[in-house]
Design goal:
Keywords: Aminotransferase, Pyridoxal phosphate, Transferase. Belongs to the DegT/DnrJ/EryC1 family. It comes from Nocardioides potassii. The protein is 40% helix and 13% strand. By secondary structure, it is an alpha/beta fold. It folds into two domains: 236 residues, Type I PLP-dependent aspartate aminotransferase-like (Major domain) (Aspartate Aminotransferase, domain 2, 3-Layer(aba) Sandwich); 131 residues, Aspartate Aminotransferase, domain 1. The radius of gyration is 21 Å and the shape is globular. The chain binds pyridoxal-5'-phosphate. Pyridoxal-5'-phosphate binds next to helix 3 and helix 4.
């Protein structure tokens, strides 16, 4: 068995009434989706994002799949996704039959590059999916100004990282036609596996409810709007169990505390590392104006792939689990299979080679944080001197 590092990359924590709520859910005798805790978690998220409706799902991947079903993709339809993202951002649309068109990212926010997007738009595009990487809004204004010329194209936010971040004081997740959230154990708010679909347009709610509930109008039946429920449409079983929703609600209720802890981690890393950046040749992540970060992660960019890999290895040897991130989807086997056509995404490749993420979780102690920054500075110094 491999030895555990002294400072793990991720460590989920209980922050409030998780166990009380899980017990309550179990005692309520309603373990499936659609119970009291599912409703309360959805209402909290709806109030925070100003959405027309929020559907709690088994994962962000499931929420993306549901949003892909809402598009009714036909022959030759395409969906534009960033190359630098998690597989699900593309997979969900590919399995509904869309051809994927991979768009490059811009180097400041690591979000979709509007200049590249403009060159990729044509009459086949049904939707454009954006990611607010690390919880920092992408160039929403640039992307909207491209989409203004294509009014039928839907903007979808894969907001797996960005819950409680903002762009121009508007919540991330409220900017697209719909948005998806993740409550996987690596995210800011967790329940093991979980997610949500945030519906910002009231016109989507009725159909989304049917697709969400195995293609039935069960929700209308529960509200007494129809006297029996039947099979109406396509769909799947997307609902989050009430037991997991109970855990999640306890986390969401502690959102201010959790976000403050995570902000403090970012501040610590920034203050400790900024003085070394020029001398040792790395770049710290930045939050451009008009944004507040959701504090999902902390990354740095090293000058090249070899140096990044050497720094990762040296940190691992000193007991600190840092890591790289996404490999560009356009260069992957499945990306090539599902691509409608080949596109060039050089910034995605460059960033994927150079990016390093530091350990990031709510309860990293000051001594953990010092261990991390010391290990990082020593590793970048050693790798600079050996070149
Ligand atoms: C941008 C992005 N989208 C989607 C997902 C998938 O989330 P989930 O594990 O909740 O399906 C991830 C996972 O990390 C992600 O980073």
């Amino acid at each position: 068995m491999s030895e555990l590092p002294d400072v793990l990359f991720n460590l989920p924590s209980m922050e409030g009434r998780e166990l009380d709520y899980v017990q309550e859910a179990a005692r309520n005798g309603h373990l499936a989706s659609g119970g009291e805790f599912t409703r309360r978690a959805a209402k909290l998220l709806q109030a925070e994002t100003g959405a027309a409706e929020v559907l709690m799902t088994t994962s962000c991947t499931a929420a993306l799949e549901l949003s892909a079903m809402l598009l009714d993709i036909g022959d030759r339809d395409t969906v534009i996704v960033p190359s630098f993202t998690f597989t699900s951002t593309g997979l969900a649309f590919a399995r509904q039959g869309a051809g994927l068109v991979f768009c490059d990212i811009e180097p400041v926010t690591l979000g979709l590059d509007p200049a590249h997007l403009e060159t990729l738009m044509d009459e086949h595009v049904r939707a454009v999916v954006i990611v607010h990487y690390a919880g920092i809004a992408c160039d929403v204004e640039g992307i909207r100004s491209v989409l203004d010329k294509w009014p039928g194209v839907r903007l979808i936010e894969d907001n797996a990282h960005g819950l409680f971040g903002t762009w121009r004081d508007q919540p991330l997740g409220s900017l697209g036609r719909y948005a998806t959230l993740s409550f996987h154990e690596t995210k800011n708010f967790v329940c093991g596996e979980g997610g949500a679909l945030v519906l910002n347009d009231p016109d989507d709610v009725e159909r989304a409810r049917v697709l969400y509930d195995k293609g039935t109008n069960r929700h209308a039946f529960m509200l007494g709007q129809v006297d029996k429920y039947t099979w109406k449409d396509t769909g799947s079983s997307f609902g989050l169990s009430d037991v997991l929703a109970a855990y999640l609600l306890a986390q969401l209720e502690r959102r201010e505390v959790i976000q403050a802890k995570r902000r403090a981690v970012v501040e610590h890393y920034t203050t400790a590392l900024a003085p070394y950046a020029d001398e040792l040749g790395f770049r710290l992540m930045t939050v451009p104006p008009e944004r507040t970060s959701a504090h999902h992660m902390f990354y740095v960019l090293l000058p090249d792939r070899d140096r990044r890999n050497d720094v990762l290895e040296l940190m691992r040897k000193s007991g600190v689990q840092a890591t790289f991130h996404y490999q560009p989807l356009d260069a992957s086997d499945a990306g090539r299979t599902f691509a409608a056509r080949r596109t060039e995404c050089p910034v995605s490749r460059d960033v994927a080679d150079r990016l390093l993420r530091l350990p990031f979780w709510n309860n990293l102690s000051p001594s953990h944080l010092d261990r991390v920054t010391t290990a990082f500075v020593e590793a970048t110094t050693e790798t600079l001197e050996s070149r």
